[in-house]
Amino acid sequence: MLLLSLLLIPIFGVVAILVNKENGVSLTNVKLIALTTSIINLFISLIIFILFDFSTNQFQFVQEYHEISYFDFYLGVDGLSIYFVLLTTIIIPISLLSNWTSISKDVESYVIIILLLETLLLAVFLVLDILLFYIFFESILPPLFILIGIFGSDNRVKASFYLFLYTFNQKCKRTKLRGSPKALVTKVIKETFSLAWSMTQGMVISLKMMVTSLKMMVTEMGDRGSKSTINNGVCVVKEQRVDSSENSRILDFVRCTLVAGKPVFGRKIHSHSNNSGIVNNIFKRSIYTTRSSLDPWFITGLVEAEGCFTIGVFKSDGYRTGYRTQAIFKISLHEKDYDLLCQMKNFFGVGSITKHGERSLQYTVKSLKDLEIILSHFDKYPLLSQKWADYKLFKDAFSLIKNKEHLNRKGFIKVLCIKASMNLGLSDELNWVFPDIKPIVRPSLLNKSMTNPNWIAGLASGDGCFHISIRNSPTTKLGKAVVLKFHIVQHSRDTELMEMLISTLGCGKIELVLKQSAVYFVVVKFKDIFEKIIPLFDKYTIKGVKALDFSDFKKIANLMHNKEHLTEQGLSEIQSIKLNMNFFRLGRR
Asked: What is the pLDDT of residues 387-434, one digit of tens each?
């Protein structure tokens, strides 16, 4: 309860100030209440600092709450955030003392804003959920704006507006569309409102992710069918458009949480180049799965989750149309899945692996000759999700490019019409330059049956999640209940596919989250997990770093099967295993 106390004590101080204000308490007492509250928080942070174990790199003092439907409320500190927590609790009483006599008007408002800022700052350093991190991080700005505007120096109003104008100016500077004022204004407005809209929908995105996406879009001129992988964290944001409507753009928020790294374009990994150190480091940290060749259906399932078929359109003066067009197939994974990407490269015998971000890699196939190998695979082992429609459109565009029809304006327009119906469609700049482009009708997915379990293993290796939660329970002796959950997430248009999983595996249920345009195949019954899910993936193995999550998931399931989770020692072991899975595993280098 120490971390939660750090967040609640300043709130209690605010309540005490409001109550005493109604009773006519002097301004000095109001300041004393605020100072006492901040000093109590300082002592608590010192206790946390003294008890903190600096010999481990794990999160400590972890607290979990599961009452919120969209996310689990996690609190915790690590070796970096502990110093920021201590620094915050030191600065707050200093700020109160330094202005003890200089502020004589609206004292109640001043101390309330200071205490609210303390809560928000501490929350930024304590929460482990990226949605809450973003909310608390952005929530600091309004009270800071008010604090500067009311209690600043002679130029306080000017300084407050500078804070806003600087933020707006940075958006403009990141935009590379200065040549087109309309495109510039459109981009800034869309970036701002898409962020606000996504937050109201209960979805998750990082501010870094928006900067990265902006750079990727401008650099690749509309190559928006890619997937941005995380930096220091988990989950990825993938873009997969299932129809030509604007509403389908919210799919890039389906995946749970994410922080995106800075993209590094065109940086190939060769063992004999200057990047050999990168390869060696990744090689040492990678998850080495079985060296036998991957099953073709596993490849298809993994591409359902992590792959992308896209048409890149790049501005170039060397072409009559003014643009260079290229068909691209790519798969993006975390750097710890380097070995899995190498196996895929060996399976196809073509393509290259490049550094895609600070913590991500990308397997890419671009040449027409090599793409024919990719197409022949998916003709023989077809996709089963709505990504099949993107694949069919990709093949049509590939044929136009192969026949060099894209070199004349008529053929180039055909390619743009196809691209407009793929993934997230055309970029803002392409829409501005070619306003009359009309997306073609997307192909309808034929009824397909799921017959090969390796496809399920591939899909689960990408979009699956093995989750452990420990909840308060009044019915158990220890007051805690351990719950296992396995789920796979897809776009809501793939609901039939998820229902097919239920009929194939004989277990699970469907959870449709309309706000995210997502559908989840979920298995929570312990009997189904122990007798169906675990035996399935024992036989048809999970690949990549997620194989370790499955292994830990299986260990906990065996502990529960033997009733060891009902003992203090068993529960402690489960908590220890849980703190090294999923988010926490990917966050370690």
From this structure: 899 999 999 999 999 999 988 889 999 999 999 988 888 888 888 888
Pairing of strands 227-228, 237-238: antiparallel
Task: List, for residues 121-167, the tens digit of each pLDDT value.
Answer: 999 999 887 888 888 888 887 888 788 878 877 777 777 777 766 65
Contact 29, 107 (CB under 8 A): no
**What phi and psi, each to the nearest 5 degrees, are found at residue 76?**
180, 160
Cα distances (angstroms) measured from residue 205 to each of 69, 131, 189, 293, 518:
17, 7, 17, 36, 15
Radius of gyration of the chain (CA): 27
CB 417 within 8 A of CB 262: no
For residue 411, count other CB atoms closer than 10 A to its CB: 17
Where does 347-463 show beta strands of DSSP type E? Answer: 352-355, 360-365
Question: How many angstroms separate the CA atoms of 292 and 362, rounded?
Answer: 22
Angle between helices 546-561 and 568-578 (to 10 degrees): 170
Angstrom CA distances, 70 to 131, 132, 201, 254, 517, stand at: 10, 11, 10, 12, 14
- What's the predicted TM-score (pTM) here? 0.53
Nearest to 59 by CA among 246, 233, 301, 205: 233
Tell me the CB-side half-sphere exposure of residue 520, using CA atoms within 13 A. Answer: 17
Pairing of strands 73-77, 227-228: unpaired
Tens of pLDDT, residues 252-285: 333 333 323 323 333 334 333 344 444 444 433 4
Q: How far apart are CA 53 and CA 60, in angstroms?
A: 8
- The answer to whether 457 and 501 are in contact (CB under 8 A) is no
